[in-house]
ScbR family autoregulator-binding transcription factor
Amino acid sequence: MAQQERAVRTRRAVLEAAAAVFAERGYAAATIGEILNRAGVTKGALYFHFDSKVALARGVLQVQVSNDYHVPRELKLQEWVDAGMTLAKRLPQEPMLLAGVRLSADLQSRDVVGSAWPAWADVTTSFLSEAKERGEVLPHVVPEETAQVFLGAWIGVQHVSQAMAGWADLEVRMSALFSHMLPAIAAPAVLVWLDTAPDRGARVIAEVEQASALAGAGQ
Amino acid sequence: MAQQERAVRTRRAVLEAAAAVFAERGYAAATIGEILNRAGVTKGALYFHFDSKVALARGVLQVQVSNDYHVPRELKLQEWVDAGMTLAKRLPQEPMLLAGVRLSADLQSRDVVGSAWPAWADVTTSFLSEAKERGEVLPHVVPEETAQVFLGAWIGVQHVSQAMAGWADLEVRMSALFSHMLPAIAAPAVLVWLDTAPDRGARVIAEVEQASALAGAGQ
């Protein structure tokens, strides 16, 4: 058990080191040597978990989508907004997510390594499909199509925020994106109840962390 | 006069060669040698017009925005849609525009070379400002803010279309972007009249080219 736990930790340390290097240098310029140095593990330990640079990049891409900050809400559309806004808050601070963005957008490496884009689009599709079943969404909305528009828009908003503000305005830009797309998606009676403020992500994260601290204290 | 005309042509040939090389290789990997070869001009001729790779890239970025396919319409918002849809039609076929997209998005070179993003955002801002004066736009719309959202979304839609379809679905994606953003922008009575179909750009271009052919025949 202790050995298995150590293996999980080593794997995570390697993945985090790989993410940091991919986020900084991109796929082509990243080397296993630098990832090794950064992870502080032996070559054998790294290769036990990941047998190549491709495997490392795929490992990073596999952990892009999580439910860590998902809180059930009365409106499924609010859950969708929350997913986007918590990601906008976390992205600039988390090398794992930054690496996912960079690897996914890399036109050279993505044929071999893959991309988190399909997984992101799936997240939107499934929120919108559930929202549609509940009547929160305008009748003509096709979840898969809207998910593709949102995917493109979200990637571009990331890019512009990175280039023009070093990520500092990502939450503001993301909030503006939601308020420019939701009127085409949400039923009017739902639209007025959605919270798309720039600090929405920070508030959801605080809520989840507080709940988790209370749960920890209660143990 | 003949000499001046020759100079204009040489400058254009050099710029088109530079655009093709920047579009294919990106800024860092492009060399003046390859641009020279492709342009078929002498080194002296190239350096007469552009004294460095930076100057060539800036030259390409300066010709990104044009009025070539602008047709006045009853609705300013239709003119804005037309600008976006004609660009979506032309982009995959024109190295000059592809180079503009690639250079503008290049996080390494854009600090030195610049970017067409501000010029694109200005185009949207000015269409939306005029549309607002005419009452075509919802009262709460701030043209500069909407222009920033649209800029990000448009860049991302380009990127996704390039990565996933080699640009083949750019018009479909762009049309979907407009239909997902316009309900947040256009007054309802205007919204129903806007043509955002995927082939809108092709139709506007055909209209302009036909008018220009007729004008030529009438001379």
Q: What stands out?
A: Chain A has a mean pLDDT of 94. Residues 76-218 of chain A form a domain with the Tetracycline Repressor; domain 2 fold (CATH 1.10.357).
